[in-house]
Amino acid sequence: MHIRGTDVDEQGRCAHYWGARDVVANRCATCGDFWACHACHAELADHPFGRMPVDAQASVLCGACSHAMDYAAYSAAAACPQCGHPFNPGCELHAPLYFQI
Questions:
Q1: How many domains are there within the chain?
Q2: Which of 2, 47, 58, 84 fits a 20 to 30 Å CA distance from 12?
């Protein structure tokens, strides 16, 4: 799946978040696209980021392997349940920007 953003690499890292663990993309409920981060969306989209319901399927994407998951699976894991690539634990601080929590 395609991850949108500014200067996005092959695993979904962008100009704003480029650490080794920054491989998670979140789906915007408004446009349905996966975005590298909220700042990329703010820069490039013509609408506010639509927060996904926590029970929505395929709302989070691992940039390392393209595994899609819901919020519960993502928030319970320190790494991708499919490929094992570690996730940035600091992303939890941004959850209210992406999900209806």
A1: 1
A2: 47
Per-residue pLDDT tens for 9-36? 999 999 999 999 999 999 999 999 999 9
How do beta strands 34-35 and 60-62 pair? unpaired
Show the domain range for 33: 3-98
End-to-end Cα separation, the chain, in angstroms:
25
**What is the C-alpha to C-alpha distance for residues 64 and 84, in angstroms, rounded to an integer?**
9
Residue type, position 67, single letter: H
What is the C-alpha separation between 39 and 71, in angstroms, rounded? 20
Cα distances (angstroms) measured from residue 58 to each of 19, 43, 54, 66, 77 = 23, 23, 10, 10, 15
pTM of the model: 0.96
> Cα separation of 28 and 21, whole Å?
21
Burial class (CB in 10 A: 0-12, 13-18, 19+), 48: exposed
